[in-house]
Design goal:
The chain is of the alpha/beta class. It has nine helices and eleven strands. The chain has one domain: Alpha/Beta hydrolase fold, catalytic domain (Rossmann fold, 3-Layer(aba) Sandwich). Helix 3 (about 100-110) packs across helix 7 (about 215-225) and helix 5 (about 165-175) crosses helix 6 (about 180-190). The longest helix has 17 residues, at about 140-155. The two termini are about 30 Å apart.
Length: about 290
Amino acid sequence: MEPVSHYYYSHRLKLHFWDWGQDGKPTLILVHGGLDHARNWDWVARVLREHFHVYAVDLRGHGNSAWAPGALYSVAEHVLDLSALSDIINDFPIYIVGHSLGGIVTLLYSGVYPDRVKKAVSIEGLGPPLSHRIYGPASERMRDWIEKIRNSERREPHSYPSLAAAIKRMKEANPHLSDDVAEHLTLHGTNWNADGSLIWKFDNYARPFAPYGHNADDLGQILEQIACPVLLFWGMESWATDPETDGRAGKIKNHRLIKVPDAGHWLHHDQLEIFLKETTSFLLRD
């Protein structure tokens, strides 16, 4: 089946989400990662909709959602947008599954509104490791962000002469992808230019980390407020660090971490069967 396209408003932006249906079942929202889009969840949504009413949101500046004015893409603004969609659905407590940026948005929402989340799943979604420069001195964070935004102003979005060329780039970003998955992600993640070339849908201004919203103490305090069970995933071939070894996962009182072999950062693509088995079991368990 194909999901139904809908729009909603948050922060005066027209944002998009896909509704996979199943009225009367508990609400589950899927939140994608940075520079991605909601249709990356299709294989997950088709299975989870047997048990839930599934919604997949396009974050601001991604997929079919509007681009924010300037460069308003901090984690706080994404949490704001998720809260608006959750209120529109109004079926609390909800279930949330997020990947990468969507994973940290999922966890922060769960900590800010602990009474509104039944269970949460986060795939490599605890933010950058604590050694990352985003946790450095404020003056350095601000300067780094300013320089990246200024560079974005001078940067022309990269285009691809054909769908095949864009698919090739997709597979370079994640060599684990099959040809069919890479094609699906590319078709839903690109727009056509007038000259027949293709361009990614995401806003390049969404790339840099905002200089605020990544305070390690603040993050830890919010994670400590999470009241629901949390399932964490980590791909053992990922560039991300083990969230238990570096201490980030320990802030979440009721969590379990699954370490997935032969999987990178997009482990819900790399090891879909393992992800679906563990996630479905976790979400349905009393």
